[in-house]
Amino acid sequence: MKRFLIINVFTACMMIPLTACDKEPVTSEVRLRSVKTITVGSLETDRSRTFSGVSKSSQETRMSFKVTGSIEKLPISVGDSLKSGELIAQLDASIYQLQAQQTQADLARAKAEERNASSNYQRVRGLYENNNASKNDLDASRAAFESSKAQVNASQRALQLSRLNISYTRLKATEACSVASISVEISENVSPGQEIAMVTCGDSIEVELSVPESIIGLLTTGQSASVKFDTIPDKTFDSFVKEVGIASIGGSTFPVTIAVNEKQNGLRSGMAAQVRFELPTHKTGNYTVPAASVGEDQSGRFVFLVKTGQQDTTTIVNRQAVTVGELTTGGLEITSGLNKGDKIVTAGVSVIRDGMRIKAD
User: What secondary structure letter does DSSP report for 83?
Assistant: First the structure.
């Protein structure tokens, strides 16, 4: 009995390794990270871009005097409607009136001298013809006459200028307009060219805005646009590009003027506006991708290219350097580094590395 137990135990011990050898070795399966992808393609349809601007009257005039002086009359108020020829402001004209009186007196004296010089010239010429005066006497009398005649002309022009200066002391509206702002007060001394008031004429409205250099080349005079004003949010105004700036105004932006076709009583100068353009992207040759698909590190901007087989969804991603353009409502513009048909990772860019095997969804 004891011998039988020993044999069974030995047999059991011999079977243990044999049983273990019959089992297949356990291998750990590698988990592949799943990512989302898109296929790059040029946007052949138009895309919209919106810029902020400020409205102004199509005819804004900053009124100023041509002469210096002290404000004597200022009969206008902001918001007043003015007729053509109506007074805006008037200077104290007393000094110019005195100058006019002085030049008028100078003119009278010059005319008297001219008459005397003319009489003397006629007398000397008669004497010269009778050989009773020398040639020098004749030349001297003629020079005196011509000088007095020139002095009369100079005095006449001085009188005209004095009278013109008097008229310049009255600042009048050149056409029907409205007072937008007033910059001076009664008794204030002003200089030529200093703004007295700004008036707006007509009922046409324009919008001034600045656009970046990447967009300015896509805008042309007459191009359509749509404008919305913050004060009238439920209405869109048909408009067009009136002027496109050719020089930067700072910060790599260019001035653009938009003319609003429609008229509405509620529109005024100084209103905040949003101008929308439809820009054809196929002219730029760029591609637009989701902003999340573009990464950035010390080497610059990049995306991960994916080349997935038709049967196998497991593939390798490769880093691709790119150059970015503007951030639009449709995504981030890529100006170089991608080709149409490339497949790129759009989600999970921060957790994958160059050469990593992934599972593309």
Answer: -
Q: Are 243 and 220 within 8 A, CB to CB?
A: no
* pTM, two decimal places: 0.55
**CA–CA separation, 85 and 167 (whole Å):** 13
Residue 319 and residue 358 in contact, taking contact as beta carbons nearer than 8 Å:
no
Q: Which of 324, 315, 316, 321 is nearest to 353 (CA)?
A: 316
Dihedral (Cα; 296, 303, 327, 324), 10-degree rounding:
80
Query: What is d(CA 78, CA 92) in angstroms, rounded to the nearest whole number?
Result: 22
Ramachandran area for residue 160 (φ above 0: left; ψ -120 to 50: alpha; else beta): alpha
Q: Which residue has the tokens 């600042």?
A: 171
Residue 196 near residue 66 (C-beta atoms within 8 A): no
CA 163/CA 102 separation, integer angstroms: 11
> Residue 89 pLDDT > 90, yes or no?
yes
How far the first Cα of the chain sits from its last, in Å, is: 68
Return the SS3 of 197. strand
**φ and ψ of 313, to 5 deg:** -90, 0
Host H or E run for residue 143? helix 135-168
pLDDT digits (tens, 9 = 90+) for 131-157: 888 889 889 999 999 999 999 999 999
* Contact (Cβ atoms closer than 8 angstroms) between residue 211 and residue 276: no
Asked if 286 and 334 touch (Cβ cutoff 8 Å), the reply is yes
- C-alpha 336/C-alpha 147 separation (Å) is 79
